[in-house]
Protein 1
Amino acid sequence: MPKSRIKYICSNCGYESLRWIGKCPECESWNAFVEELVETGKKKQTAGKNIVPLSRINEIFAAEEERIQTQIEEFDRVLGGGLMPGSVILLGGDPGIGKSTLAMQACANLKTPVLYVSGEESAKQIKLRAERLRITSDEFFVLPETDLTAILDSINKISPSLVVIDSIQTIAMSELDNSPGTMTQIRECTVTLMEEAKKKHFCVIVIGHVTKEGFIAGPKILEHIVDTVIQFEGEHHHSFRILRAQKNRFGSTNEIGVFEMHENGLQEVRNPSKLFLSERERKTSGSIVTSSMEGTRPILLEVQALVTPSNFGNPQRVATGFDYRRLAILLAVIEKRAGLRLSANNVFLNMAGGIKITEPAIDLAVCCSIASSLLDKEIDGDTIVVGEVGLGGEVRSVSQIEKRIQEAEKLGFSTILIPSYNNASLKDSAIKIIPIDNLNSAISYLMS
Ligand code: TYD
Ligand code: MG
């Protein structure tokens, strides 16, 4: 009989310890250790098994495999051009964001058998959802099951090209004593599925919930194992959702997919800029349009700033959808280089629509929107501003300027402010291009 004992594992990085520790010595996260039952009596019989022959790289034959298209363009693009047979994809996100919906819609479009395993919903509940999504596919198999052995049996029976596990936290291997959702179960189930997927050449989408701390439970360990990690994000009070690849062995991680949640499922948003600009109030100070590259696509969005006098000693700085530390730096640059006093003001910054932007190309727009609100001067609503701002107040070049200009033209903007360095490489275009050297000249152009 195998003996079992208790071990503590860091749920963030997988560091193991024999006693509980408050702070992980490896990744330094607090309160991350969880208790796990480990069987010690069992010896792994792996030695000598599965010896893979040594080979020269030139002797290996590897043709680019045909990917499976889900016909959901936004999803396929994030995956790097469709599902890769034999790969495992981890789809993470907050509960209720639409992971199950997306996975079901992807399954519905395939012409080959697909297996949708749900440990969370009954077959009836799945059917009701399928009706809402108008799924009629005859190759769509449903299995409300939590035991991995039964799942593998079903896989053998129907030889699917895609298996969805909804969610990995509910699935368990009966040989292990740990309850579903523990690190050991999550890891072992994923590894077993992965081996099976590689052997039989089907693709697996593993759905994982995100814990309060923002991690997929049992997170980093899974991220190392699987081929692709995609995150489904969005605000619950907004209907749009963004799909982002965090890791992808078969494609770039820059692409994003944009969706909107409707009463009958997720709809692709082919032109995200239009969506993000749709509710714009044109005649207010502090509002400005900028362009951020998300993968290969430029997205136009509105930056809003509100600067108000602070009656208390400590003025507030709040940023939504933008890095707080970056805001602090830009505020210091505005004070020092543009001579605008902000130390006695509250500054609130918002990326309209609830999108998160990390690209420094929107710096100039952030600075100008703050200046516009402080000076209470409106900025022309048909103007777009792009550029990174350096500590000296200089405006630095941005990548892929042509694409940003094209998108601005397409959406009917009349003027674009761009870094001077980018200007040299440009051809003529219908939109008026204003090259900008530094923050001061942008502010005086926009607000004089
Ligand atoms: P779901 O896919 O169940 O989320 P997850 O699997 O990530 O927990 O989606 C849940 C939300 O989506 C739920 O609040 C209802 C909403 N929804 C719609 O608005 N329209 C639809 O057609 C469906 C299926 C769900
Ligand atoms: Mg779900």
Note: The pocket of magnesium ion (ligand 2) is lined by residues 99-100, 120, 166 (CB under 6 Å).
Protein 2
Amino acid sequence: MRPQGVAVVGSVTVDVTAFSRRLPRRGETVLGDDVTLVLGGKGANQAVAAARAGAPTWLVGCVGDDPFREIVLSALRSQGVASSEIRSVGNRTGVAHIRVDASGENDIVMTPLANSDLSTDMVDESIRAVRDKASVLLLQLEIRTEVACHAAEAAARAGLTVVLDPAPAQPLPDRVWPYVAVVTPNESEAGALTGVEVVDVESAERAAAWFLDRGVRHALITLGAAGALSVTPERTRHFPAYPVDPVDTTAAGDAFTGAFGAALAAGLDTDTAIRRGMAAGALATTLPGASPSLPDRKAVDELVDRHAIVDGSAP
Ligand code: ADP
């Protein structure tokens, strides 16, 4: 039997968010209403999403030697993410510095710090440590591109299914694509990578062809409230979104990829995994914030089951 775990290679930060009625003008100081310190980083968010979806989950990443380290480690552990592959390096833990005004408008300075210290050797060591326990590897691009590309190749060679969320979008060398089993960009990331402006299902299909032409086995383009488009050499299929009332779409993509990866690792078929990812993405939009909005397995089960009764889409 294939191991049911998920390994995530990626970033981990403390998100320091200041809330004020309005954002300061250049050089100005305003009085704020609140500050929160929350676990963040796309790698950590995907890991929490996979763990909450029920998969044994390891995050492979780097934290610093500072008080923020304990904040992120205890948050990850409390969400069920194994921290055995997180290294403390002689640097500072990554920080995303976020300001939000009363209308929800925000700006962010993401400083990778320790995340830049994740090396190809560390990734190799961690893949060796988890390869008997995990069958899926999730990747995003908030770590050094060279390390992310190496992780894709090493994990694929070790027999893991590599799922790449190419966010934030940046050019990647052509040689990485054949190691990617599933690529999960949103519309703007698909557009930035392929040069095809993705505005609807038809343009998403053209962007998907770009990935398949380069050796990706499955392009899964997320379209926000318009659902997702799944394209393989055999089949193209549009999945409509689950209807929800969104309040904050932050981390919908991380919820999607984490729950999708957890379902694949559990041995579920691809369509079921897509539906579970989409349900997790939809649910993440119904709560404010990033990692605190990620749904658990029960909430995903309920949304998928409720919908299956309505439209008969049960697997
Ligand atoms: P990202 O956060 O990376 O931009 P998306 O917004 O495309 O990613 O969201 C990922 C998935 O979450 C979508 O494919 C969809 O299934 C679900 N989702 C996102 N926004 C909504 C929404 N407003 N209503 C229903 N489902 C949504």
Note: The pocket of adenosine-5'-diphosphate is lined by residues 186, 222-225, 227-228, 241-242, 244, 246, 249, 252-253, 256, 278, 281-282, 285 (CB under 6 Å).
